[in-house]
Structures are given as structure tokens and as C-alpha cells.
TrEMBL record:
Protein name: Glycerol-3-phosphate dehydrogenase [NAD(P)+]
Annotated Glycerol-3-phosphate dehydrogenase NAD-dependent C-terminal domain residues: 181-320
Binding site for NADPH: S11, W12, R32, R33, Y49, K106, R256, E282
Localization of this protein: Cytoplasm
Residues at the catalytic site: K192
Keyword Ubl conjugation set for record: no
Length: 336
């Protein structure tokens, strides 16, 4: 029987564990809080992250990483991007030597500007083909209510990619596609969070659909430019992990990143918004590392720049809007 260990009993880790359990994969969640682990094992619920959801009885949880990892074929990582390096360093001694390491995370590491699959390769000391990424329009608030969703599984090892695709294909609920472009799939997921912050700020300011369309379209241009500089396949950004996730995150009130931006746009301070945000909004930290990555590769990302200024340097949203609209006019062509 195929076995999986899922690290993180937050909203996506738990929900992805439900999907794996549904396809017959024997799945153990690792959680750092004993009370969450107990709620999953005894009452089959995770009220802090998935209130009202009934978890399958076969989905087990533990606080012991060695127990979760024992015999695992898939090691699925769903912790905040900025804590992954420290977490994985602690779990490394127990990692099965032939397991596929799977990232569900959508962030870029601060300081190193590394994608999560790069951090995994470095910390676990495994080659790229042992690491897969799952990313797409996957708002947990919908999936956990049983609504259908599609995603993208990316890995440079075709057989491993297809094994993971089969392990999380659960019709009619969850439909994974494959794409060998790990860089593009990962960038699409991380950078759309930054664009969702911008769209949220605009919504909080009371701006309308033209502005939302402008930010999403020019945001996709920023994602594509950065992707091209990093060697991604440009077609990836027209797919689920690119435009698909951008649409879902920028338009849904369920998005934590969009909501975070909306609260800033309404005039709340950063400290107030952080205090009101109970779950991980990856773009808040990753906007800095995305901008640093762009500068390293000489890629222009004006929306990302103003997101960093509004989120971290207290630039008034109105000033950010004027800055963006006053840029030198230019042609709109692919890659510009
Ligand atoms: N929720 C979604 O809709 C969704 C969908 C797709 C991808 N993702 C991505 O999945 C990743 C996880 O997000 P989530 O929504 O599950 O977040 P979450 O906030 O719901 O859960 C985060 C989990 O990480 C744990 N955690 C927090 N700090 C930790 C630390 N220092 N060490 C170890 N564990 C720690 C928390 O206890 C919790 O179990 C993010 O990168 C996110 O962008 C989320
Ligand atoms: O709630 P968000 O903003 O973290 O978005 C969740 C997922 O990434 C959407 O695909």
C-alpha cells in the first residue's frame, strides 16, 4: 500500500491529506500542536483550520516526525514557506531514502530568494527529480466543502510525476494535470499571491473591475517576465498554475492574500491586518523575496514594487496607484 506523510495540519495540508486518503493512500499528518493532532485522531475534525469539516477516519495524525515518515512513499510539505528550511532540517534524519518530496507551498525564501523545491533539494540533499510541486487554483475553503478543483503536479522525473498524479486523482472532486516545468509551476503559485495583494488593496480602496483586470493582466506579464528570466516555459503561465491560480486568488473573497490587501486598502495598518490574519498569507513576506529575485535577474516588476512599498514601507495606497499610472507609457507586447 502506498503511504504518505503530510507535514502541516493547516488548511491545505489537512485537505490534501483527505484527498490522498480518498484515493487509498495510507496518510499520516504531522502537526506540531498536540491538541490539533488529538482532534484529528479522536474527533476527526480540525476546527482551527477547517471548521465544520468531517475528516476521514483513516486519516491519522501525530506529533512525531519519525512516526509520520516511517515507510512513506510521498513526503508532502505544507508548512509556511519561511519556516520550511528550519523544519526540514529537523525532519531530515527520518526521511526515507527513496521517497518523493512534494511541495504544496507557494512562497519564495527570504534572504536566499530560493523556490521551495530548491530549498528542499538543498536541505534534504536530494536531486531535483526527487522533488515535486503541486500548485494551481486550489482555494481550500471550496475544496473542503466538496467542490471540484484541478491542479498541476510538476516534477522533472516523469514516472514520479505520474505516480503522484495518480495518488491525488479523486474524481469527481480533484483533478491533477502534469507539467514538467517545475520552475514555472512554482513561480506561478508564489507570485500570484503578490498580485492578489495588489488586487485586494485596490478593492479595499473602492476601485472597480477595470483596475482589477489591469492588475491581473499586467501582473501576469510580470510573472511571465520573471519566469522567462528563470528559464520557465512561457506556456505554463497560460495554464492552471499561472492564469488559473491568478484568477482564483485575485477574485475570491476566500483568498487570504487578497483579503490581507483589501484590509490594507481600507486603511488598516500592517500591524492591525497581521493581527486579524489567522492563517498563512504567503505574499506578505514573499513580495520582498520576489522583488529581490527580479532585481537579481534585471526584470522589471512595477506592481510587485508598489506592493512591497505599501505592505512594508507604509506607502499610502493612493500614492501607489498614482505611481503605477504615471509610469512612462509603453507598448503592450508579449514579454514587455
Ligand atoms: N489554504 C489554501 O487555500 C492553500 C491552497 C494551496 C496552497 N497553499 C499553500 O500551502 C502552504 C500552507 O498553507 P496553509 O493554507 O495550509 O496554511 P495554514 O496557515 O492553514 O497552516 C499552516 C500550518 O503550518 C504550521 N506552522 C506554522 N508555523 C510553523 C512552524 N514554525 N513550524 C512548523 N509548522 C508551522 C501551522 O501550525 C499549520 O499547521 C502555503 O504555502 C500556502 O500558500 C494554501
Ligand atoms: O488563500 P490564499 O491567498 O493563500 O490562496 C490560496 C491558494 O493558493 C489558491 O490557489
Amino acid at each position: 500500500m502506498t503511504k504518505a506523510a503530510v507535514f502541516g495540519t493547516g488548511s491545505w495540508g489537512t485537505t490534501f491529506g483527505m484527498i490522498l486518503t480518498g484515493t487509498g493512500v495510507r496518510t499520516t499528518l504531522w502537526g506540531r500542536r498536540a491538541e490539533v493532532v488529538e482532534a484529528i485522531n479522536r474527533r476527526h475534525e480540525n476546527p482551527d483550520y477547517l471548521p465544520g469539516a468531517v475528516l476521514p477516519e483513516a486519516l491519522r495524525a501525530t506529533t512525531d516526525p519519525a512516526e509520520a515518515l516511517d515507510g512513506a512513499d510521498f513526503v508532502v510539505l505544507a508548512v509556511p514557506s519561511q519556516t520550511l528550511r528550519e523544519n526540514l532540517t529537523g525532519w531530515k534524519p527520518y526521511l526515507p531514502s527513496d521517497a518523493l518530496l512534494v511541495s504544496l507551498m507557494k512562497g519564495i525564501e527570504l534572504g536566499t530568494t530560493k523556490r521551495m523545491s530548491e530549498v528542499i533539494c538543498e536541505v534534504a540533499e536530494v536531486p531535483q527529480e526527487r522533488v515535486a510541486v503541486v500548485s494551481g487554483p486550489n482555494l481550500v475553503g471550496e475544496i473542503v466543502r466538496g467542490q471540484p478543483a484541478a491542479t498541476v503536479v510538476a516534477c522533472t522525473d516523469e514516472r514520479a510525476m505520474e505516480r503522484l498524479q495518480a495518488a491525488c486523482h479523486l474524481p469527481p472532486w480533484f483533478r491533477p494535470y502534469t507539467n514538467p516545468d517545475v520552475v514555472g509551476v512554482e513561480l506561478g503559485g508564489a507570485v500570484k499571491n503578490v498580485i492578489a495583494l495588489a488586487v485586494g488593496v485596490a478593492a479595499g480602496m473602492g476601485l472597480g473591475d477595470n483596475v482589477r483586470a489591469m492588475l491581473m493582466t499586467r501582473g501576469l506579464a510580470e510573472i511571465s517576465r520573471l519566469g522567462a528570466a528563470l528559464g520557465a516555459d512561457p506556456h505554463t503561465f497560460a495554464g492552471l498554475a499561472g492564469m488559473g491560480d491568478l484568477v482564483a486568488t485575485c477574485t475570491s473573497p476566500l483568498s487570504r492574500n487578497r483579503t490581507f490587501g483589501e484590509n490594507l486598502g481600507r486603511g488598516m495598518t500592517l500591524a492591525e491586518v497581521v493581527a486579524a490574519t489567522k492563517q498563512t498569507a504567503e505574499g506578505v513576506k514573499s513580495c520582498d523575496s520576489v522583488l529581490e529575485l527580479a532585481r537579481k535577474h534585471d526584470v522589471e516588476m512595477p506592481i510587485t514594487e508598489v506592493v512591497v512599498a505599501v505592505v512594508h514601507d507604509a506607502m499610502p495606497p493612493g500614492e501607489a496607484a498614482v505611481l503605477l499610472m504615471s509610469r512612462t507609457p509603453k507598448p503592450e507586447r508579449y514579454g514587455l
